[in-house]
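does this look right to u?? manganese (II) ion version
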Amino acid sequence: MKTERRNGGKAERGEGLATGKQLAEYRRKRDFGRTAEPRGGRRRAARKLQYVIQKHAASHLHYDLRLELDGVMKSWAVPKGPSLDPSVKRLAMEVEDHPIEYNQFEGTIPKGEYGGGTVMVWDRGTYTYGGEDDAEPVEALRRGYQKGDFKFRLDGDRLKGSWVLVRTRRGDPRRPQWLLIKHRDDSAEPGSEVVEEYQTSAATGRTMDEIAAGRKPRRRRGART
Ligand code: MN
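got this back:
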């Protein structure tokens, strides 16, 4: 067995390299000759941990929540999307790790391919550990993920504040079901429906129909609102 390149001293800054093994399932499911989704390389992660939510009109509309950890995007499919109401628990089905470059992906996956349908960058930004143990934030994130009590704080274009993903005992053990819950803080909004509020891309300003039609971005990619 080859020695895996672990994160060494850079782990505290959240840097890491995705190994081929981590992305094996992601790659196995896709034909990169047919889909424009990234294959994922040994790209060095950004200094701050990245966060993205992609709205995905596949066979069923859902929102893909992705949080960077150890060089990959940990990923959950959230059928109803996030809620800012702390009394609402949203089902979040864990799916395979995605490459960090996937955060830039907006477009249409061809029909018949895995996940075929239109993908919008619905929100994006960075995130940090959201719990009490601030001494080793990346280590605390790893532990939280492993324990199934993953607390994080978002600094996205649209979503802010602290959240938790709680793992349940339901579902395939390899693909567990979690619940996504907003914590009570300044960014909580009881009774709101944030996924209805924002119908355009955080990256390009386009609607799902405009992305599907291949319309040009409304503003420069990377511009913040
Ligand atoms: Mn998806």
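The pocket of manganese (II) ion is lined by residues 56, 58, 62, 64, 77, 115 (CB under 6 Å). idk if thats expected tbh
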